[in-house]
Amino acid sequence: ITSMYVGYRITNPGPTAINDAYVTIGAFGGGFVGLAANEDGVVHVGSLAAGQSKYAYFYLTSSFTGGTSTVDQTHAIKVYEGLPTTGTLLT
């Protein structure tokens, strides 16, 4: 298995609603893990009331071909209100 979905619970800590939330994944480090083919790394989760949670899933793939690696694989999750290209970065 070289590819699989990862999921993140996105929670609005409040006190106000997020009208139109988008979640991105990127800034991959370590050299082995990245976006799978046809995965754009952007999920539209829509509105989130204060205290509400929704999930964002991304399809990732690994180029590692065996054995054990001691190289940390890292990435960043960002949440925006509005489109990532023009919206406000929340976290």
The number of distinct helices, counting runs of at least 4 residues, comes to 0
**Broad shape:** elongated
| Radius of gyration of CA atoms, rounded to a whole number | 15 Å
- Beta-strand segment tally: 7
Which structural class do you get from the secondary structure elements?
mainly beta
Describe it.
The protein is mainly beta. 0% of the residues lie in helices and 56% in strands. A 4-stranded antiparallel beta sheet has the order 4-2-6-7, with no helix packed on it. The chain has a 3-stranded antiparallel beta sheet with strand order 1-5-3, with no helix packed on it. A hairpin with a 6-residue loop joins strand 6 and strand 7 (88-89). The model has no long low-confidence stretch (mean pLDDT 94).
Write a brief structural summary.
The chain has 91 residues and is mainly beta. 0% of the residues lie in helices and 56% in strands.
Features:
91 residues; four-stranded antiparallel beta sheet; three-stranded antiparallel beta sheet; 0% helix; mainly beta; elongated; single chain
Give the helix/strand layout:
Elements: E1 3-11, E2 18-29, E3 33-35, E4 42-48, E5 53-62, E6 74-81, E7 88-89
Antiparallel strand pairs: 1-5, 2-4, 2-6, 3-5, 6-7
